[in-house]
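Crash report, auto-generated. Payload:
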Amino acid sequence: MSILIDSDTTFIVQGITGREAVNLTRECLDYGAGAKVVGGVTPGRLGRDVHGVPVFDTVAQAVAHHGAPIDGSVVTVPPAFTKDAVFEAIENGVKLIVIVTERIPRRDVAEMVELATLRGARIIGPNCLGIIVPDVIKMGGIGGPAKNAAQAYTPGPIGVISRSGGMTTEMSSTLSAAGLGQSTAVSIGGDAIIGSSYAELMGLFEADEQTQGIVIYTEPGGRMEAELARWVTDNNSRLPIVAFMAGRFMDEMPGMSFGHAGTIVEGKEDTASEKIARLAQAHITVAERIEDIPAIIGDKIAARQSAGANA
Amino acid sequence: MRFFEYEAREIVKRAGIPVTDYGFTTDPAEARAIAERIGGPTVIKSQVLTGGRMKAGGVKFADTPAEAEAHARAILALEINGHMPRGVLVDPKAEVEQEYYAGVVWDGIRKQPVMIFSPVGGIDIEQVAAEQPDKVGRRHFSNILPFSEFQAKEVIASTGVTGSALNKLVPIVTRLAKLFTANDMILAEINPLGRLADGSFVALDAHMDIENEARGRHKPLLADLGVGDEETRQAREATPFELAGEEVDATDHRGVAGNVTEFDGNLGLVIGAGGGSLTLFDAVRAHGGHPANYCEIGGNPSVAKACGLAKLVLQKPGVDKIAVMMSIVSNTRVDIVARGVIKACLELGYDPAEKIAIFRIPGAWEEEGFKILEQYHVEYADRSVSLNEAARRAVEKIGADAS
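Recovered output after restart:
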């Protein structure tokens, strides 16, 4: 199986007439079994279509046209309009929202996340590339055009969670080349406040039978790795985890931000070295090099399985 | 973006929180005039965006206006941790009975702002939290429900503060919480918050940090404070090389070829994207390489932009070769970056095969890109070569210990 989305998932694209959104729509329609993109929304563009997907002025119109609740939305509108677009999706019953937009102030993100929580919806991102279930469906720009995505992602037992969109693909490609496919890969976004952290996705992977291990990509900045370490310990997780930590050089440069908005080191707990120590305490191995990850996670899965067989 | 103390105090004042009758100036004579107006002992404080100013001699007490002028002159010329002061703040020396702490920050895990209050102020709140945890109150508040005073009352009362002090503090902490939200702050802190002999409270120092992404919606405030759009107030000033990088990125609106940061090595890096750049920079250093710069390519930049970035890096003094490397790309096109970096070499009169230590960008349009690289005999690698291995090869070519 997979987490968050499957071949039945329906979604809309908000901001569908933008250049990137048009490409993203094409990619999602082409990938795997073909995503059910049931509509797009751009105010003032009612009646148009994008690669055959009907365009509406409002989410409510898209829902009415579909005649049933819509599962998800990919939000690609400019930063100043994102909060309103996400509120619109949530208030129209959408339960899974992937926010692609970058440079959204964190107060807006926090407001969106709080409303989503009240309504039982989930946000992935912002500043992310979305979700992919190899060979089945992708929701967002993750992996790029269908042909490129198919080259990097293959079905298998590994759940991938990454703060970097590009590195989601790089790591999955490395796993695929080693014969370890992915159950679902999620680009969670690189901002200081995001809709779904590692820990907030772990429960879903834990419940997914296909998933046997987790690979994460992480960076300095924030407390999300400490939260993951705590989750793993508190929940006695069945899933072995291997992490890769980029940006170790930033420990020497406090106050500077590289890569993603969320990477700024504001306190000791944010540093790469501190995070590595915390992850290690929760028996999460931090790989030195990406090419080492397949062997480490493969060994860990094998060790769990033989321990399970002996029990 | 962090505010100077004199700006932060102005923000606090505008929110209706009492402050002392201070003055800001860049002129010693004016410092004297402010001290005369205040008419009593004063404190002269260096206005720098760095810690440890007390220890460095950036805060001095004056009994007379003449002394205030002399201190201001000395402090204005005093560099602290590599920062020259923006000016000095001349502050009445308040008779403080007790120092408190009040602050608001984001909790990225709860995804809500959190108020922090302590009756032990004037020192680092983290130190108080470690040594006297029962003296530090914390309380989250909603992003979408209106803030209500009882929330401030609860966090103050949780530290054992009661009586008239509690009632006087509630509106102050309430206003601080509201200004945090209204101004898109990522930090709003009053420390110390002083209780004077008459029982009133006054903000004696304030730290405010506004989120960069939200600056656009606070233009009136920033204009009032005299903060220009160009002022980024990074941990260190941008170098001419970094400013040139910004210019390259601004040539057109297609994609990104920017976030250039200067280092002093001999291996120029033309790298991307966000996570890929971090990974590659670490890898180059792990193999003993000396990067000349950090940068990020992403979002499919034009040939001109990729060329501009490569030229900038190639022309940086001390750069022998460049390594062009990215994690697997799906949006950015391999052939466009390849064309850009080759064009940069040719236009500068270099042989691309000589100057480009390695090209490792797999992904969209890679067949086309690799074809171009072959024409110019540039060493390239596809996705079967890891980021780490590509970095190793680049360092090997340039020599690990030559710097």
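Post-recovery validation: The domain at 21-93 of chain B is CATH 3.30.1490.20 (Dna Ligase; domain 1).
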